[in-house]
Design goal:
Radius of gyration: 17 Å
Strand order of the largest sheet: 3-4-2-1-12-11
Order of helices and strands: EHHEHEEEHEEHEHEHEEE
Number of helices: 7
Number of strands: 12
Structural class: alpha+beta
Distance between the termini: 8 Å
Oligomer: single chain
Strand content: 25-35%
Length: 255
């Protein structure tokens, strides 16, 4: 199974920038998108389906905001929309699929950059999501949790940790949540294969030169529960793919 996770920062904008041409290159069997900013009826899915993908969408109630989707060439056994937590579901943040004994969760974690109110909600969401996956893994131990986490975990994951130590996305409380997550037998798949610095998945669009200078943050992940660690084949970041202010991240699992 080849999996892509990609915050497209608006699926319609990404399509205008060549997203469908890239999809034709067959980058993955399962493509998990965040921040789609669209309802399914807003997008012509025929070209996507022609490539062999079934499309599943979970959009925010607010138009043009948030939202997640999964395009898959592998037929899922079960699809679950949302995580049954009201505000998260209103914002279209989680979609889940079962493939045999593996459960894939595509999640768009909240950002706290717009102010204290959203930062407070981000902490609430993190706690609720943690409890959700802890309950889920009792029945479904083989978990893949991909998406835009909106958190750079360690200093190696951000271009300037000193100047950003008080920035949302790199706050001590957020990083402590990531510590707790990984300590509780989840695996940062990219770091299994690559321990080098300067690998990022998001660059601020407010400063057009920072992507060329590679002054970014690694906030997009495909992580797995410890039960799948033995199935990891490869993991990569794909910064050359440019339809968004994020880039895709990739994971391949072996049988």
């Amino acid at each position: 199974m080849r999996i892509i996770s990609y915050n497209v920062n608006g699926i319609r904008a990404a399509i205008k920038k060549g997203f469908l041409d890239w999809l034709k290159e067959n980058p993955a069997d399962v493509v998990c998108l965040q921040e789609t900013k669209a309802q399914k009826e807003d997008v012509d899915v025929a070209p996507i389906e022609k490539l062999g993908y079934q499309t599943y969408w979970f959009s925010a109630e607010k138009k043009g905001y948030s939202g997640v989707a999964i395009f898959t060439k592998i037929k899922p056994d079960k699809v679950s929309y949302g995580n049954k937590i009201s505000q998260s579901d209103l914002e279209g943040r989680v979609i889940q699929m079962d493939f045999g004994d593996i459960t894939l969760i595509n999640a768009y974690f909240p950002s706290g950059t717009s102010g204290d109110e959203r930062q407070t909600y981000k902490y609430q969401w993190l706690d609720e999501f943690y409890d959700y996956i802890q309950t889920l893994r009792k029945k479904r131990p083989k978990l893949i949790i991909c998406g835009d986490y909106n958190i750079a975990h360690k200093e190696i994951d951000i271009h300037n940790p000193i100047s950003n130590k008080k920035s949302s996305g790199f706050l001590p409380e957020e990083r402590a949540w990531m510590d707790k997550f990984f300590t509780n037998k989840f695996v940062d798949t990219f770091r299994v294969f690559n321990t080098d610095p300067h690998h990022y998945t998001w660059w601020s669009a407010r400063f057009p030169t920072v992507r060329a200078q590679n002054k970014g943050w690694r906030i997009d992940y495909i992580n797995v529960s410890d039960a799948l660690k033995g199935n990891l084949k490869s993991a990569m970041i794909l910064p050359q793919v440019k339809h968004s202010d994020h880039c895709p991240v990739f994971l391949e699992l072996k049988p």
